[in-house]
Design a protein that fits this description.
By secondary structure, the protein is of the alpha/beta class. The protein has two domains: about 130 residues, 3-Layer(aba) Sandwich (Rossmann fold); about 100 residues, Dihydrodipicolinate Reductase, domain 2. The protein is built from seven helices and eleven strands. The strands form two sheets. It has a six-stranded parallel β-sheet with strand order 2-1-3-4-5-11, sandwiched between helices. Strands 7-8-6-9-10 form a five-stranded mixed β-sheet, with helices on one face. Strand 9 and strand 10 form a beta hairpin. Helix 4 packs parallel to helix 5. The longest helix is centred in the middle third of the chain and has 18 residues. The model has no long low-confidence stretch (mean pLDDT about 95). Bound molecules: NADPH dihydro-nicotinamide-adenine-dinucleotide phosphate (NDP) and ligand LZUJQKHR. Belongs to the DapB family.
Length: about 240
Amino acid sequence: MNILILGYGKMGKIISEIAESRGHSIAAKINIDNRDELSALDPAKIDVAIEFSQPEAAIENIKWAIERGIPVVSGTTGWLSKKPEINRLTLEKNGAFFYASNFSIGVNVFFKVNEMLAKLMNETSGYQVSLEEIHHTEKKDAPSGTAITLAQGIIKNYQQLKEWHLTGEGKDSEHSLPITAKRIDPAPGTHIIRYSSPIDEIEITHTAHSRQGFALGAVLVSEWIPGKKGVLSMDDFLSF
Ligand SMILES: NC(=O)C1=CN([C@@H]2O[C@H](COP(=O)(O)OP(=O)(O)OC[C@H]3O[C@@H](n4cnc5c(N)ncnc54)[C@H](OP(=O)(O)O)[C@@H]3O)[C@@H](O)[C@H]2O)C=CC1
Ligand SMILES: O=C(O)C1=N[C@H](C(=O)O)C[C@H](O)C1
């Protein structure tokens, strides 16, 4: 496959290495300072664009590719309030757009475990639930996209909770799930869900040891997407 890399930072670099090691070629590696290279590309020769940039850049990058008929696999977090616009454009252009807040297969197993635990805890009482995420200090958004997905999984299954809030933002209420975001180098991404009572504590944790799992997941999805249409997610890709 011929892959366009939109956002050649920490993730873009590892994704390119993995893609090349699996026999793919890279059409271009685009960052903010070489975006003019896009105009020299022939969209018909690009099989997929992999987009890991930053919250303010994602929407422009994704639109550029969808408007040219290129399937997009995006992992950029922190821009999701604008995703409905991209969903509409994808359907209007009969294109393919795949988004995941986390491409690691392990995290996607963890998402399912989180939902199962929330369902079980919904049947009991006396526990306070909280979420903590730890990432490196270069991360631009808080809470992480993964923490938001986890929070949505809890809220959907745990009746007492109706929304989430970042701790320190003054929204404490028994109906709001507190998320603490810590920035500590070099953490690639740790997510902890805690149910605490005066008697005991139940805690589940996913710790990424590197960015390999995120990057490999994005390449695997990119190998799967050619020929697919519509707005896609990990639920379409995974068999569990
Ligand atoms: N879904 C998932 O599994 C994962 C998602 N992420 C998310 O992916 C995103 C990128 O993460 P990471 O690689 O660590 O971040 P980096 O900051 O290392 O890389 C982002 C890159 O995007 C470039 N960029 C900025 N503006 C544009 C633009 N307009 N067009 C193209 N490129 C641009 C930056 O260039 P410059 O440096 O020149 O500004 C930089 O090289 C983040 O939102 C992060 O949260 C990260 C890991 C896993
Ligand atoms: O910025 C990061 O590094 C990461 N971002 C994603 C997120 O916001 O959830 C995924 C992973 O946790 C690493």
